[in-house]
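TL;DR need structure tokens for one chain.
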Amino acid sequence: MGSNKVAVLVLGMAGSGKSTLMQGLKSYTSRHKLSSYFVNLDPAVRKTPAFEPNIDICDTVDYHELMKSTKMGPNGAIMTSLNLYATKFNEVLSIIESKDVEFVFIDTPGQIEVFTWSASGQLIAGALASSMPVIILYAIDTVRSASPVTFASNMLYACSVMYRLRLPIVLAFTKTDLVAADKAFEWISDPQVLADALQDDSRYLGSMSTSMAFMLESVYSNLPVAGVSAVTSLGMDDVIEKIREARVTYNDVFLPELEKAKQLKAEKLAGKAEEAYRSWEDDWKADQGMDF
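>> reply
TL;DR here they are.
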């Protein structure tokens, strides 16, 4: 497995600034001559994404025609489009593998659950991980995260995505040209400050979020974070640095765990095969009236 190339799955809630972040990454890597390759896995875009992907799911699957012909809803059509594309993803992977680049940025559907909680999303992430380091770049709207409850909810979802895909994650607080990410960083580094802010919210949700904040402290307090404005490029260098650090984390921590899991699965399958063979052998000997 090549150690230099890294696939970056760009995820984020609707309105998080994910698409603008992709555009900013394209502009930054081009301007600084960082070898990169861009893939769009969002079939619902109405026109070619502004970051001009090298590979676009829309060239293969017509989401709007699919929705029209099957009378599916938006989410159902997105999931079906992704499922269809996943069956041919080995061809996409072969193209990606052939490119001599450092970064492969992959935009995902705006309906984040369609990718993170679907079999096709797991298949695509797993296929990439079998070939190269893979990390998650999770976009969080800094403006919305000024609310401690929204911030806590975002962090909870980010942690669930990380555990679901079993990949290292980098948190990118977007739109810092509008609101600085200092408060978010403080809440991450000091859960007591976040708990105090949450307690000021008298609603039940505030109390629940306070419990979540302490429960997840050991997880998200160690996650790499960066504040970034895709409009001004301020903080983009930090995002790239955090991605490179996460690549090292993947190779040092996540890859050994993945290989261990693969080995255990292979041993389990081998054990089942051996058990099935022994059962068949016993049945065959019994049928033959053999003494054993």
